[in-house]
Amino acid sequence: MNIELSFAEKFLYHIWDGKHLHISLKTVDNKEIKVMYAGQWNTDSGPDFKFGIIQIDGEVCKGDIEIHKNTYDWINHKHQEDMNFNNVILHVVYNHNTQYPATILENGNLIPILEIKNQLSEDIKKLQDKFAGESFSRSEDFCSFFAGLDNNSIKMILVKLGLERLEKKINRFSAELYFTDFNQLFLQGLLESLGYSKNKFQMLQLSTLLPYNKLKEFKSKGLTKDQLIALWLGCSGLIEHIPATIPKEWSYKWSELYHNQSITSEYKNLEWKLFRIRPINHPVVRLLQVSDLIYKSLDDSLFNQLLNLFSFSRENFTISKFKKKLYKFFEIDWMELPENIHLGKTRIDTICINIILPLIILYARKMTYPDLESSAFQIFKDYNKLPENHITRHMNKFMQESQRKIISKKAIFQQGILKIYYDFCRNHNCIICKSRRNNLLGIDDVID
DSSP character for 115? Predict the structure, then answer.
């Protein structure tokens, strides 16, 4: 598809940056070109895009990309005399108007020319209507961690960092296990996870205010599920903050049960943060969502029930079968509880990655069950993406579209992104971050 030459050269930047080209490209001397990474637009002097990655006849090349309306513009702009252009690996032009099939660098090397006027995608007319008269501006912030990373490298790095983040969670639970047991660890992790950012600490406090072994003791003395809910709400101060989404008769029932109970005198005002909280994230709603699970487990062991999720033969295992068991594990057998406030699958997925798998791996190591440990690791590596949060959305702006697509496929990649953010980005440790990336890639650091 051709377009008229009555456009600013920077319009071609939009074409290149957005990959508005055929999938299979040919240079003027008939070499096959595949664009793996378009590069980072250069706002300084020198080539138009830095850190590009392309395949030329199957060979991967990394370097800079220069873009012109006409091939001869290279000479008009005196690039053949400028050593700053010696790292260019591809000369992209709209119209090839010289007799030579290659462009000559200052150092005498030859680079291929890609003429794009007959290799444009079908959506170029819309792009021209939108951008032909506009100057090109940097659409994403620059980050040297992601710049120049091909898809295989970013996968390799994020898998390593995702596993490191998993180990940090395992180590945290391992330290806490010194003071308690696996039943209590799961209760603590579960409630903390349901507290979200505003009430994580308060929910964790509740799990220690009424620990699992005490709840088992209360159940042996006749504790009902409604009494369990009444104790949670009353002992934590939530009894005064039941949201309007909960039927009034339930609120009255739990309040009466708490004030008339003689089971425990424990009470602590946990200073709940409820301002502008979404109804589904209200801690009362979150406690109702797991009350069925916790109450039913009190006759046996909460962690033993969790272990049953992993009782499958390796030969018949699939991630979909595991997730089906996982969602059933959290199902609420409580007809009166409205369906719209049941625990959602995406929240269960997050609990699995952040709480269940680290605990299972820790247990497998303590008990020397290598098959169980291996299964849990495999689930972690295969698990599909989790919901985005403000951190992953923030990190997305530093990536190319192809990189964002990779991150959106698996939870382990997202965990790797979170590790980058917490280790480096939030403290603006860009130099250390780049050094860490190079270390993971096996590249020696070079001081500029």
Answer: E
Nearest to 68 by CA among 96, 100, 38: 96
Helix (H) or strand (E) holding 291: helix 283-297
Number of residues written out for the chain:
448
The radius of gyration of the chain from alpha carbons, rounded to an integer in Å, stands at 29
Alpha helix segments (H runs only) across 46-103? 73-76
Q: Compute the distance between CA of residue 92 and CA of residue 14 in angstroms, rounded to an integer.
A: 13
Q: Which residue has the tokens 């589904």?
A: 280
Q: Which helix (H) or strand (E) holds 202?
A: helix 196-209
Q: Which long-range contacts (CB under 8 A, 24 or more apart) does 317-323 make?
A: 317/375, 317/378, 319/379, 319/382, 319/383, 319/384, 322/379, 323/349
- Which of 40-49, 67-76, 133-142, 211-220 has the largest mean confidence? 211-220
CB atoms near residue 177 (< 10 Å): 16
Q: What pTM was estimated for this model as a whole?
A: 0.69
Backbone dihedral angles phi then psi of residue 422, each to the nearest 5 degrees: -70, -30
Mean pLDDT of the chain: 88
d(CA 205, CA 191): 9
Assess contact for 16 and 65: CB atoms under 8 A. yes
| 130 pLDDT tier (thresholds 50, 70, 90) | low
Report the alpha-carbon distance of residue 187 to residue 192 in Å, rounded: 8
Tokens, residue 275: 């301002």
Tokens 């490209």 -> residue: 25
Residue with tokens 């600013």: 8
pLDDT tens column, 338-360: 777 789 999 999 999 999 999 99
102 with 15: CB under 8 angstroms?
no
Q: What is the pLDDT of residues 261-318, one digit of tens each?
A: 999 999 999 999 998 898 899 999 999 999 999 999 999 999 999 999 998 777 777 8
| Distance of alpha carbon 370 from alpha carbon 383, whole angstroms | 20
End-to-end CA distance of the chain: 43
